[in-house]
Amino acid sequence: MNIKKINIEKLKPAKYNPRKDLTTEDEEYKEILKALFNNKMHKRLKYTLIETVKRGICWWQIYIDDEGDLKARLRYATRIIPLWQDEEHEILDAVIMTYDVEVYTSATDRGS
Q1: Which of 23, 20, 71, 25 is nearest to 44 (CA)?
Q2: Pairing of strands 59-64, 70-75
Q3: pLDDT 10s digits, 12-31
Q4: What is the distance between the alpha carbons of residues 110 and 103, in angstroms, rounded to a whole number?
Q5: Confidence tier at 39 by pLDDT (50, 70, 90)
Q6: What does the buried/exposed string (b/e) look like for 42-79 if buried means 16 or more CB atoms within 10 Å of the residue's CB?
Q7: pTM value?
């Protein structure tokens, strides 16, 4: 791979622009695609690319929220410990997500 720095004025826009209106004959499908691939999703995909380049891997947590909508949340690689079933890392058994927790042992620790 040949990576080089170039001036931003020399960049050429891609032929495909994902932010342009989607075209399809099926109006229901079109509305679903617009709802899914909105600006928030494009921002999430951008951060996914950045995290993957920096860390080599990135994780998404797919879940259903309280209203029954399908949601995706970006999880950073530094907080995820994958448990692989095979050595090729093709079958994922589970993941362990680490996070910081503040523990208060008495009211005086909180400053109350």
Answers
A1: 71
A2: antiparallel
A3: 776 666 566 556 677 887 78
A4: 10
A5: confident
A6: eeeeeeeeebeeeeeebbeeeeeeeeeeeeeeeeeeee
A7: 0.51
